Amino acid sequence: MKELAIGTSDFRKIRLEDSYYIDKSLFIEELMKGHGQALLFPRPRRFGKTLNMSMLKYFFDIDHAEENRPLFKGLAIENAPAWAHQGKYPVIFLTFKELKCPSMEGFREKFLDYLVAIIETNYPYIEEVQGLVRSEKRYLDRLFDYNSSQAELEKTLKTLGAILKKHHGIAPILLIDEYDAPIHAAHTHGYLPQMLDFMRNFLSAGFKDNEHLTKGVITGILRVAKENIFSGLNNITTYSILNHQFSDKFGLTQAEVDQLLTDADCTEDREKVASWYNGYAFGGNTQIYNPWSILNYVGNIADGLRAYWVNTSSNELIKEILPKADKSTQDILFDLLKEEKVVARIDEFTVFDHLFTGRNETVLGLLLFSGYLTAEQRMDINTYELRIPNKEILSMFRIMLEDHVSAGTAQAGDTELMRSLLEQRGAIFEDELRKYVQTAFSYFDIGQEGNPEKVYHAFMLGLLAHLDKDYHIRSNREVGYGRADLYFYPKDPSNPKAWILEFKKKQVDDEGDLQSLAEEALQQIHSRNYETEILAHGHTNIMRIGIAFKGKEVVCAF
After folding, report:
1. Which pick of 106, 333, 442, 465 has the fewest CB atoms within 10 Å?
2. Which pTM was predicted?
């Protein structure tokens, strides 16, 4: 098998080094079929956006047409009608992926350096172009003197496009990659309004009523709200993960992965591989694999199935908004954690000022477009059936839940809590659980108006997440004569221990005490034979725990 160029996003480098390449060249054919003058593709990180944009650059580039033509030898685009466009256009390709700065001034300086390097490398002839007007000459002079104003930088696409059109006699193709990367940085460092103003003016100059534009392609992770960025740009058409068009052009299809695994002589159970890395329903019906994860898995098969994609980012924005989720959003997240599907409305546009309101639509929209959820099907306008796509993302949710819900629990003795549970010391476990709840559960609303049963359930599930390597952990699973809240048992068959937990919430009009309610939960474990699976695997020393609660009051029965 050819070498996998994991992490390489330069199409030319991959092709020249004869690395393994999964053919996405028909993206060009679909792009040129008419879909509008400018197209925006929001996709999760590491789903092949930059590599596809690099491919477009080398395909259309008029300055190196002959040199680039062999790069496409043997690819599907050679036999498609769009092949007629190969090497016919000047190309402006800018990526904002690395332009993340702690201040607006820092961004302007870094962007100016980047522009000078791009223009000197790709258009060495630019100052010799015939017919330049005074404003164009002034733009170039000030640029190369590193003295450009922000207004001049904002007009880069229009000015540079006009110059290239004069030189080649045809309007250029504009490729803007990861346009929202500096917006995320600006949000983090507190200069979001200035960055939004810059990006609005920059994109408007390049795409709005620009006669120096043949076709434009923009990629990013989020679809930032029109009133913030794309105001007035009526020629931009968005194709997100909710659209059927282009749904197979980012990420890998089942057929592509099957071929990859065959070429890699992968003997692993392919259903297990799919359960870890497949599951994205782009366009409602196209099953897509996370390309970063499946390629890393194939490149490290001896290491087995593990999380790759979720470990490539700090997930700071996600971590920042989850604790602010309102009651109904928390309930939805806990249902998702139990691997259930939920029907909910989502915001298709991201308004950064709204991210910390905790609204369903905002939080779920961010999770969906960032790749942490997928939309199974559309139920109504802006309403979708959502689920966690695969085990890799599920593992991230469990860890993140543990991080958030257990904030501040070092003082509550979390180590002793887990030790007492695993050693099956009931009285100590109950005491430590009470301490835990008193400190940690101020983080989420466990009052009567919310759904605290789900909070306790998800809290315990998150607490057990790190045991996944050595224990089978089952949540809300049909077993015996019902659906057990939570049970787990060792993967080591020689260890006889096992645990079953059932949760009960005391209702406002319930006259009974918490101890009776805990005993009722315990009796449910017995009467519905929740131990069936555990006994079938040879584990006989079973700790059964009924947990009853009212707000921050907790009582256990063992």
Report:
1. 442
2. 0.77
